[in-house]
Amino acid sequence: MGSGINFNPDTFFNVDQPRVGLVVVYGEASALLKLMPHVDDSGAWVQARFHRGPLAGRPVIVAKIGQGKVHAAAAAQVLIDRFGVDLLLSCGTAGAISPQRGAGDVVLASRVIPHDGGWHTEAGFVHLGVYNSALPDGRHYRRDWPADPTLLTAARHAIDATTWPETAPMVVTGPLVSGDQVIASAAKKQWLHQSFGAEAVDMEAAAVAQTAALNGCRWLAIRAISDSADSTLDIDVTRLITYDEAPPALTDKMQDAAKTVVRLALNPKQADALRKLRRGLKLAAGHAALAAAAVVNRLQ
């Protein structure tokens, strides 16, 4: 289900350039849209909002989505089917997995890995990746999606040549792990680094890469570090969440909000952690947007 305008990719995109679609989480999209001189609303499908306009002088479609792999995959498919996109770019923030990564650093994914796909047994978790439906015998899985080397090299050159408004961030090319989990654990962070050599972790890139692969479409993932993905991010968010299957009454919401204010006032460390996270998210979203614009400008 969806609603939107009639769209003709042949008249919107330039004939001799890639048809680029960017997938970005709602809360991180404003940094990207600010780089576009004008933006037109192109409608809503699959709980995502689509916008069209020029980025770095080239026409693009931006899909604003909710967090997670299913939202990312659904929006990516709409970009391909309805908007005629032939290059998908996953853009946004990520948590640091490598101990060398810090807030604002930019990670260009050499490959993306769905870290939460596998089996849990009494002996622990075994990473399998994603079932390969092309060989439907139940024994074939895909553990990662490598980026196209030529496309990756061009993107890295573009990011390296970027002019930053303030101090230039560290830019690295390396593995990105992706899953439907917010990582706020030093132990989990260490496991992700040791198991996959990951630079960073996000929640959408693997789904974008898989959807692109299923459609024979090119893809890239650009992420900037917003947080350390360890216990410093261990903020009790459960009191801030409303579950659709059991929505609380308005009075319950008001009471929870009041309790949250009191708890933060009595726990300065949590309040400081929230402020630090907000600053990190803003910095990372801005760096990821600038890097994405540089890549779009240079793509052939």
Look up the CATH topology.
Answer: Rossmann fold
* Strand tally: 15
Question: Overall 3D geometry?
Answer: globular
CATH architecture: 3-Layer(aba) Sandwich
Q: Output mean pLDDT.
A: 90
Q: What radius of gyration results from the CA coordinates?
A: 20 Å
Give the proportion of residues in helices. 25-40%
Tally of DSSP helical segments: 8
Count of individual domains: 1
- Spatial strand arrangement across the major sheet: 6-14-13-7-15
Superfamily at the CATH H level? Answer: Nucleoside phosphorylase domain
Task: Describe the protein.
With 300 residues, the chain is α/β, with parallel strands linked by helices. It has one domain: 3-Layer(aba) Sandwich (Rossmann fold), CATH 3.40.50.1580. 34% of the residues lie in helices and 28% in strands. The protein is built from 8 helices and 15 strands. The chain has helices at residues 9-12, 29-33, 69-81, 149-160, 186-196, 205-214, 250-266, 268-298; strands at residues 2-3, 20-25, 40-45, 48-55, 58-65, 87-96, 106-114, 118-121, 124-127, 130-131, 141-142, 145-146, 171-178, 200-202, 218-227. Strands 6-14-13-7-15 form a 5-stranded mixed barrel, surrounded by 5 helices. It has a two-stranded antiparallel sheet with strand order 8-9. A hairpin with a 2-residue loop joins strand 3 (40-45) and strand 4. Helix 3 (69-81) packs parallel to helix 6 and helix 4 crosses helix 8 (268-298). The longest helix is centred in the C-terminal third of the chain and has 31 residues, at 268-298. The model has no long low-confidence stretch (mean pLDDT 90).
